[in-house]
Amino acid sequence: MKKKEIKILLAEPRGFCAGVVRAIEIVEKALKKYGSPVYVRHEIVHNKHVVEDLKQKGAIFVEELDDIKDNTRPVIFSAHGVPKKVPEEAENKKMFYVDATCPLVTKVHREAERHNKNGYKIILIGHKGHPEVIGTMGQIPEKNIILVENIEDANNVNLSGPVAYVTQTTLSVDDTKDIIDILKKKFPDIRGPIKEDICYATTNRQEAVKKIAPLCDMFFVIGSRNSSNSKRLVEVAKKAGCINAELINFEEKLPIEKIINYEKVGLTSGASAPEKLVQDFISEIKKYANVNIEEFVSTNENVTFKLPAILN
Ligand code: SF4
After folding, report:
1. CA–CA separation, 213 and 106 (whole Å)
2. Is pLDDT of 1 > 70?
């Protein structure tokens, strides 16, 4: 029987961002320099494949410093950032730590600190429970920062005195704009970031999806269920016109029966998903259909971040 023809519209940029590349490299370099085990507090980036690969190389993942069995071994803090009390705790325990917080998350931490020092109450736009949000809120005293997750929260904010806002780096650009517009109406003098907090990688991946999604019958985002930027890409694809958008994390089987019913399939990957998963996805479809790949380049990225000097 003749194989079905499927066109894959592949988004570019997709996949690893500079912060993820740096965080993985920090763990690898630490393993090389200090031997194994090296402890990592929280998933270094939100991707099971990355975590499993580093486990094989000798990393041990823990949620809290108290879970570490040998305090003489190095510990690495994940790309999402940590509240101030975490490095303080490590110092109290005389542990050696390397901070893999993405420099673009650190930038948000410094903004929040600066606003706090200048007497502003801070609104953090983000998702409750995400490690980045916990890390940013933990930069300043709890009473001086509140979390706004959505438009409803923004409408209900009740603060007096000078107000500033910062945001999580991996939010939907459009949804965040709507929230900021409400805050600006409520607090005309509100201070915001000079350059927005949503990072270049989040913005670029969402832009690329917006271009392709209206042309697709189905859209797949490769990424883990706890990856904020990947989940946002699914929402962006739906909003841009492909309601049939799904997150695929490769822990379950690909829905091949569904895929081969479509002619145009959009494909991208979140900032913490390895390119190998994209290629595996394509190879799997090729078993059932003749695949024609068209890559849509919406922008070229050339961002890199330096490693901590101690690992050089
Ligand atoms: S998604 Fe953005 S903020 Fe997060 S690690 Fe990547 S570059 Fe840094």
Report:
1. 32
2. no
Please say if 132 is a catalytic residue.
yes
Pick the atom of ligand 1 nearest to 169's CA. 3
How do 75-77 and 38-41 pair as beta strands?
parallel
**Of residues 91, 132, 207, 301, which has the active-site annotation?**
132
Q: Is the pLDDT of residue 5 over 90?
A: yes
CB-hemisphere CA count at 13 Å for 111?
A: 24
Rounded to 5°, the CA angle 244-250-255 comes to: 45
Residues constituting the chain: 312
| Rg of the Cα atoms in the chain | 21
Euclidean distance between the first and the last CA atom of the chain, given in angstroms as a whole number: 57
Q: Are strands 264-269 and 97-99 parallel, antiparallel or unpaired?
A: unpaired
Residues 248 and 269: their CA atoms lie apart, in Å, by 9
Helix (H, G, I), strand (E, B) or coil at 97: strand
pLDDT digits (tens, 9 = 90+) for 37-52: 999 999 999 999 999 9
pLDDT digits (tens, 9 = 90+) for 158-183: 999 999 999 999 999 999 999 999 99
How many angstroms separate the alpha carbon of residue 17 from the centre of ligand 1?
6
* Region 122-132 average pLDDT: 97
- Section 207-221 average pLDDT: 97
